[in-house]
Design brief:
There is one protein chain. By secondary structure, the protein is of the alpha/beta class. Helix content is 25%, strand content 21%. Strand 1 and strand 2 form a beta hairpin. GO terms for molecular function: 4-alpha-D-(1->4)-alpha-D-glucanotrehalose trehalohydrolase activity.
């Protein structure tokens, strides 16, 4: 299977070829509803394969291994009846119109994370496609879709994928996905897919096909790990890598967001992530591919070039930035936030260096955390204020608009969108969505109790949630209302037009001002101005390109005398105000005068941008 033999049901002009990997099994049969039974021939590489004449797209089938129960195909392309239902033969024919699209590159991206099921009230690809012009107008360049592989249950986040080739049917058809991606490309927006290759969810069928899919050599908090480095691992690696390539070739996805890479255990000479990255880029060529990763240990090798022993990815999510800003903005640092004080220096350091933990001790872990990243260019860090995890890891799934004052929210948004790293927004953040985003997983029976109790135990690490009264009021993940209540209310985009304009203006400024481009020759520095205040300085070869972003989350700050070199303008130039988070267009309190050569006040909960102009 080293040639990555195509798995699943592949239709052609005369029928369909069925291929499964079932190492260690003796007999495999495909049963087609109304079409007969087709024994598959055993191959030398552990695969079983046969061509079924007259069986075409739309045929429903199941697979029977060693006379066991008929089950879905692990490489099924569609499961209209869910995780345990019949698989369907699917044609990948589509009239693509994106031939001129070249794909996103590493630099100057604006990422937008969304969950198809809650992004709109309909929860479908077709409904989401209608919002693409809105996202393009906002300034989004890459849409990151939360996992869409089939999982057990009626609704969920998707991180419990069991059938990774089969798009979750309630969201729409494979053709609907292609139409979404094609339309996005037509607007100049890329689409990447969040993939889960560290474990599988409840009710999987893998072991029926082969015991070699998983390994018990490693401890994985979410369940058994894929066998990437043991006996017969080559076939498992091919199954996963081929899945990644499948999304690129058959759906024109522009790349991936790899979930929890630290749980993809592999001691092989070439790590599975490196192999996956190489295969995705080869499949996307001549287009570029954009691959980012969630990696809790914050390992620099994720973005190192392959010839330097790295995995060649484009970016890593930076929880440190989110945690420091969250503590600064809310004042709370319990549970995993306790390694952060939210000081201006922490924020400055994150804007200069990305990760805050480069190998020093973490109190939460009682161990060293992170790796050396001091020289990492900022485009390799994905910065965010909200994402699915950080919003839902609270008792009520509250968004920042419910946790912060409007002024404070505007101020920290400027820090995200004008910061040197790659910004990422979470669905509805741009218009201050007030609906919560909760953890939901629509299963029933004993498994439902396990999920609900497990969620309570996890959240009890936050002291406030351990309150018995709060525990009783936690939303039940298996209740459909928990899912329905997490859907965006798009009428809020009109009601909160001021915050939406702030996001649009900042992203337009990020795009139009060369100083904010990650392709520029700028240099970043920063300084602490007070207990809650800081500045970020952009220094460029051209004096007129210099910029200063001021942020104050403390009391009004008198700026009459500031003994800080970074606030001095370039020789022969002066600072003039270019933008303020308190502009009335953003529902702000009004812009106070900014006169750097006189006495002036940097207001509380405010961000101000200064630009350099000749005197």
């Amino acid at each position: 299977m080293t040639s990555r033999r195509p798995l699943g049901a592949i239709p052609d002009a005369n029928g369909t070829r069925f291929t499964v990997w079932a190492e260690g099994r003796k007999r495999v049969v495909v049963e087609v509803e109304g079409g007969g039974t087709f024994p598959l021939e055993a191959m030398e590489d552990g695969c079983f394969s046969a061509h079924a004449a007259g069986i075409g797209a739309g045929a429903r089938y199941k697979v029977r291994v060693d006379a066991g129960e008929a089950i879905p195909d692990l490489a099924s392309r569609l499961q209209p009846d869910g995780n345990d239902g019949a698989s369907v033969v699917v044609s990948n024919d589509f009239d693509w119109t994106d031939a001129a699209w070249t794909g996103p590159t590493t630099r100057d991206q604006v990422v937008y994370e969304l969950h198809i099921g809650t992004f709109t009230q309909q929860g479908t690809w077709t409904a989401a496609r209608e919002k693409l012009e809105f996202l393009a107008g906002l300034g989004v360049t890459v849409i990151q879709i939360m996992p869409i592989g089939t999982f057990k249950g009626a609704f969920g986040w998707g991180y419990d994928t069991t059938l990774p080739y089969a798009p979750f049917a309630p969201y729409g058809t494979p053709e609907d996905i292609r139409a979404f991606v094609d339309a996005a490309h037509g607007l100049g927006v890329g689409v990447i897919l969040d993939v889960v290759y560290n474990h599988v969810g409840l009710g999987d069928h893998y072991r029926t096909y082969s015991e070699h899919f998983f390994t018990d050599r490693y401890e994985n908090e979410w369940g058994a790990s894929f066998n990437y480095d043991g006996e017969h691992a080559h076939a498992v690696r091919d199954f996963v890598v081929a899945n990644a390539v499948y999304w690129i070739t058959e759906f024109h996805m522009d790349g991936l967001r790899i979930d929890a890479a630290q749980a993809m255990f592999d001691s092989s000479d070439e790590h599975i992530i490196a192999e996956l990255s190489r295969a995705v880029r080869e499949a996307a060529a001549p287009r570029s591919a954009y691959i980012i990763v969630e990696n809790q240990p914050q390992e620099h090798k994720m973005i190192d070039a392959p010839d330097q022993g790295g995995y060649g990815l484009d970016g890593m999510y930076n929880d440190d930035f989110q945690h420091a800003v969250r503590v600064a903005a809310t004042g709370h640092n319990d549970f995993y936030y306790r390694d952060y004080l939210g000081t201006p220096q922490e924020i400055v350091s994150s804007l200069k260096y990305g990760f805050l933990y480069h190998g020093q001790r973490s109190d939460q872990r009682d161990a060293a955390y992170g790796t050396d990243n001091l020289d990492t260019p900022p485009e390799h860090f994905i910065h965010f204020l909200e994402n699915h995890d950080q919003v839902a890891n609270s008792p009520q799934g509250l968004r920042l608009t419910s946790l912060l004052s409007p002024a404070r929210l505007r101020a920290v948004t400027a820090l995200l969108l004008l910061g040197p790293q790659t910004p990422c927004l979470f669905q509805g953040q741009e218009f201050g969505s007030s609906n919560p985003f909760l953890y939901f997983f629509g299963i029933d029976g004993d498994a439902a109790d396990l999920v609900s109790n497990g969620r309570k135990e996890s959240l009890k690490n936050f002291p406030g949630v351990a309150d018995p009264v709060m525990l009783e009021r936690l939303a039940d993940p298996t209740d459909r209302q928990t899912f329905e209540g997490s859907k965006l209310d798009w009428k809020e985009a009109e009601r909160h037009s001021g915050l939406l304009k702030l996001h649009r203006d900042l992203l337009a400024l990020r795009k139009s001002d060369p100083t904010f481009s990650q392709n520029s020759e700028r240099r970043i520095d920063g300084a602490v101005l007070g207990d809650g205040a800081l500045l970020l300085r952009y220094l460029t070869p051209n004096s007129e390109g210099h910029r200063v972003l001021l942020l104050n989350l403390g009391r009004d700050l008198h700026m009459s005398v500031v003994a800080e070199p970074l606030i001095a303008p370039p020789r022969g130039h002066q600072w003039v105000p270019a933008w303020s988070s308190e502009h009335p267009d953003y529902d702000g309190a009004g812009r106070r005068p900014v006169e750097p050569e006189k006495f002036w006040i940097l207001p509380s909960d405010c961000a101000v941008l200064l630009k350099s102009e000749p005197r």
